[in-house]
Specification:
The structure is a single chain. The chain is of the alpha/beta class. The chain has one domain: 3-Layer(aba) Sandwich (Rossmann fold). The chain is built from 5 helices and 7 strands; from the N terminus they run βαβαβαβαβαββ. Strands 2-1-3-4-5-6-7 form a 7-stranded mixed beta sheet, sandwiched between helices. Strand 3, helix 3 and strand 4 form a beta-alpha-beta unit. Helix 1 crosses helix 5 and helix 3 packs parallel to helix 4. The chain is globular, with a radius of gyration of 16 Å. The protein starts with 6 loop residues before the first strand and ends with a strand. Bound molecules: NADP nicotinamide-adenine-dinucleotide phosphate. The site of NADP nicotinamide-adenine-dinucleotide phosphate (NAP) has 27 residues, from helix 1. NADP nicotinamide-adenine-dinucleotide phosphate (NAP) binds next to helix 1.
């Protein structure tokens, strides 16, 4: 897709990755509207409100070409394995991104792109992060099925599954504490790869832990 002038909504722009992506897209000439809980736009626990955020952005931009979803929460260890925490993880990490994307689909006028940050946990479900992994795997599976449904309509679905990047996300976990995690990539590296992926209509950005490198398809 052509990023210059692209009517873009970035949700979760108060986060490290969402903020960096919004800034990079603006630098590329995209017309960016941002939304976040911190700015008072929405809380991901309110799915109807998530959909309304997309409608408001599309009205402001006169349509929509690109939706970037960068919201998410982590939880670790036995404290994460309760119904309450699992519901929280699945609402923020799975259902809210689905609500944003569903609301964006009718706003794309013939063509559009959704770029959603899931996580490497979708490919590598990890002990100590079982519910968190499941929430990201659910999102990624949904994106895969959606991609097939939307292809003929001209809508691209880009699933970004980063490895651990030091953004402070683990320290903001809704339950439990992470074991010390070694960062496998840097924020700037990921942002550069996401922008290239958008320009080239990629479907997935994954990370091979054995090789220590990203792969884009
Ligand atoms: N960093 C990593 O290692 C890594 C690896 C793989 C995937 N990811 C994914 O990348 C995305 C961005 O993560 P990040 O590293 O940039 O973390 P971050 O800086 O903590 O950003 C998380 C974002 O999610 C938002 N959020 C959390 N709970 C919310 C809620 N209930 N309602 C609305 N917004 C909520 C935060 O909003 P507030 O500012 O209001 O809190 C913030 O904008 C997430 O989906 C994450 O799972 C990150």
């Amino acid at each position: 897709m052509d990023l210059s002038g692209a009517r873009t909504l970035v949700v979760g722009a108060s986060g490290v990755l969402g903020g960096a992506l919004a800034a990079a897209l603006e630098k590329e000439g995209a017309r960016v509207v941002t939304a976040s809980r911190r700015a008072g736009s929405f809380d991901a626990m309110d799915l109807e409100r998530c959909a309304a955020v997309v409608d408001e952005a599309a009205a402001e931009l006169g349509g929509l070409d690109l939706l970037v979803v960068a919201i998410g929460v982590a939880a670790f260890g036995p404290e994460a394995e309760t119904d309450v925490v699992t519901e929280h993880l699945f609402t923020v990490n799975t259902m809210a991104p689905m609500a944003f994307v569903r609301a964006a689909l009718p706003r794309f006028d013939g063509a559009g792109t959704v770029c959603v940050l899931s996580a490497i946990l979708a490919d590598v479900p990890t002990p100590g992060m079982a519910a968190y992994s499941a929430s990201k795997a659910g999102l990624s599976a949904w994106l895969t099925a959606l991609r097939g449904e939307q292809r003929k309509k001209g809508v691209r679905v880009f699933d970004v599954r980063p490895p651990h990047i030091e953004t402070g996300l683990a320290g903001r976990a809704v339950a439990g504490e992470a074991l010390p995690l070694k960062a496998a990539a840097e924020v700037d590296e990921l942002v550069g790869l996401v922008l290239t992926g958008l320009r080239e209509d990629s479907r997935e950005l994954t990370f091979d832990l054995r090789r220590g490198e990203f792969a884009r398809r």
